[in-house]
Sequence to fold (489 residues):
Amino acid sequence: MSNPTDLKYTASHEWVKLETDGSVTVGITQHAQELLGDMVFVEAPEVGRKMQAGEECAVVESVKAAADVYAPIAGEVTAANGQLGDAPEQINSDPYGAWIFKMKPDNSADLGKLMDAAAYQAHVDSEAH
Amino acid sequence: MTLKQTPLNAAHRAMGAKMVDFGGWDMPVNYGSQIEEHHQVRKDCGMFDVSHMRVVDAKGGGVRTFLRYLLANNADKLTVPGKALYSAMLRPNGGVIDDLIIYFMSEQWFRIVVNAGTADKDIAWMQEQAATHAPNLTITSRDDLAMVAIQGPNARAKVWQVLPQIKAATEGLVNFQAADCGEYFVARTGYTGEDGFEVMLPKEKVEAFWYDLNKAGVKPIGLGARDTLRLEAGMNLYGQDMDESVGPLESGLGWTVDLKSERDFIGKAALLDNPPTKKLVGLVLLDRGVLRAHQQVVTAHGDGEITSGTFSPTLERSIALARVPNGVTVGDTVQVAIRDKLLNAQVVKYPFARNGRSCL
Fold:
C-alpha cells in the first residue's frame, strides 16, 4: 500500500489530513500499523484538550506493544473516533480510513512543516537501515 | 553482532515472516497476523520453529542419581521410558538458572531440552556439577539437531500424515512422553496448552520436514503467537516470569519442587531457609487496556509487579501473570498502574485457556 499523496506525515508515523473546514484528521500510517501488528486497544485524547506539536496524546496498543501517538501540530482536539474502541483492528485493515482524532490547528500554516508522501517514504526507508 | 540463524531461516523468509532479534537469534515473530496464528493453533494446528532451543544428552551410568541432585523436581517420578518431567534448575541460593524438560529414555540416557538464551550457562553448570558428582557422565550439546513444535488439536494427525513411518511408535504416547524413532525424536509436549508433538531431527532434514508439513496444510506460527499461547496456558517464560534473582516458589513453580522427600538437591536448603513472601497469580483486566510486564500492581497487602502481560485472543481481554504479596487471594480486585491511570484487575487461578477454550 502506498502512502496517499493528499496527506501530510510526521517522522513519528502519524498521517495528517487537512479537511475543507480547516480542521485536521490524524491517524497512524500503514508502516506504523505494520510494525505494531494486530491492534487491540486505542486510547484517544479527550475532546477539548489543547496540545503542543509533538505532545503525546493517544496510545495505540497491539498484542505486541504499546505506542504513543503524538500531536502533529499545535491545536485543540475536536473529536475522537469512538468506533476504534470496539474495533481497533480497523487500524490494521484500513490505516488511512481509521482516523484516531480530529483537531483544530492553532495555525494552519504549521501543516507546511510536515512531510509529503515522498519525503515520508524516504524517511521510512532510512529507518529500515 | 550477527544474529544466529536456525536451519529454517530461508524458509521463514520465503513464507513471508517478519523477522526479529530474539535473544540474539533471527526469528519469525509472525507471518502476517499474530492473532490469526494464535487461533489457528487453538482451533486446528500450526508449526513453530524452536530450533534455537538446545537439546542436551546426559549419558552414562548414574545419570538418574545425578539429575535427582541437579534438579528441583524429582527424576524419580520418571519410571516409564520416554516419560518427561518439567523442572527448574537452581543455584545453591535458590535462584532459577533455567526451566527445562527432561526425558527418561533409559538408565543410561536422559535427554534434556533447555531454553535458547540460557543454553550455554546451563551446560556449563551441568558439566561443572557433573565433574564433582558424576564424573563418568557425558553431557553433550546436540547442536546437530533442529526442533519443530506442531501444536493444536489436529497436530498429531498432520505429523503422521507427513511421517507415516513414526505413527506406530508414537500413537500410544501419553501427554509428556517421547519416543526415539531413529532420526526423529518425537515428544508429546509443547508450550501452547494444546495437544501436539515436538519433533527433534537432524538439521539437514528439517527444511524438507517443514515444507512437507506446510503442504499438508500446517501453517507456520511465529514467536508472537507462541507467547500469547503460552501465557494463556499459564506457562512461565524464563527471563520474564523467573530468573536467577527469584526462587521457584515465588514463580508459580511450587508444584515442580519436591521439598518433602529426603532427597537433597541444589538449592533445597535455601528454599527451606527462606519461605516465600510473594507468589505468582493470574490477572484479568476488568477495565479496557493491555497489561504488560513490569507494570506495578497495587493490592491491599502491598505492591506487586506484572511479569508477563498481553492481550488474550481467546478471552478477548488482557491477561497477565503477576508476582504479588502472599496475602493476595483469588477473587481479589487489585489495581494496575498503566501510564497515568490505576485500572482494575481481578486475581484468578490460571491457566487462562487451554485445549481451545477458556479455563476461567
Notes: The longest helix of chain B spans residues 119-133.
